[in-house]
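Shipment paperwork, digital attachment
Item: protein structure file
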Amino acid sequence: MTSTKRTVAFFGATGGSILACLTLALKAGYNCSALSRSSSKLQTLLLERSISQETLNTHLTIICGDIRDLQSVSQTLSPSKPGTTNHPVDLVVSGIGRPPIFAPNPLNPTFDDPTICQDAIRTILAALRNLPTSPLKPKPWLFVLSTTGISSRVRDVPLLLTPLYHWILAVPHKDKKEMEAVLLAEASKPASDRAMENFVILRPSLLTDGARLGSAQIRVGEEDEIKGTASTAVGYTISREDVGGWLFDELVDGKGKEKYAGKMVSITY
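Attachment content:
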């Protein structure tokens, strides 16, 4: 798995946005690792996206396990293939979440794992703290998928969607807000004590299953908790394909991570 490209660990890779980002990373030749409860499911999803079996064998290491299991998460952050030495990854992409359950009452959805996001980020940070570092191998960057509608500084959703966000989606949004708080608390530590080099929190608007329209159709807002500044991009929806595409183009493959370092970034059409 020798490559000059950065290595990337993915959590939540069977979900639409992170799956789209992983697909683009593999097509671009990145060496990737992914935590999944089902190796066969993830491989099938990638094969359906025209990722060859050869590419999967060469550029992807799948660790079967649960996001709350520290050992599984640690293996994903420092993967190895037979005959190779494991090395910590350069970038970490997390989009852990659970969909709502609309039965039996679609107006009162339930959630079978209401703390999955905050538990996931705590486990990832704990595993990152255990990674070896050196001047030649800095700590990984961490990119986390969150949501609009939870900012304490600005309104980043249309007024018409406010009831949906604060009623139907109240439970997962509480979870994501706590996830962000945990990450911001970690980022407030001195650089030498932080688990990661830096971070970006990505807040997409309401997700759809539409096709990728491209970065030219995406509007971007920024919120800097430390500086207390914010710019808004209020919109209704964005496709999972475009979220994954923007994540790859700007943060994984591009130079946007320096531009957006330490910020919450909202994206929408």
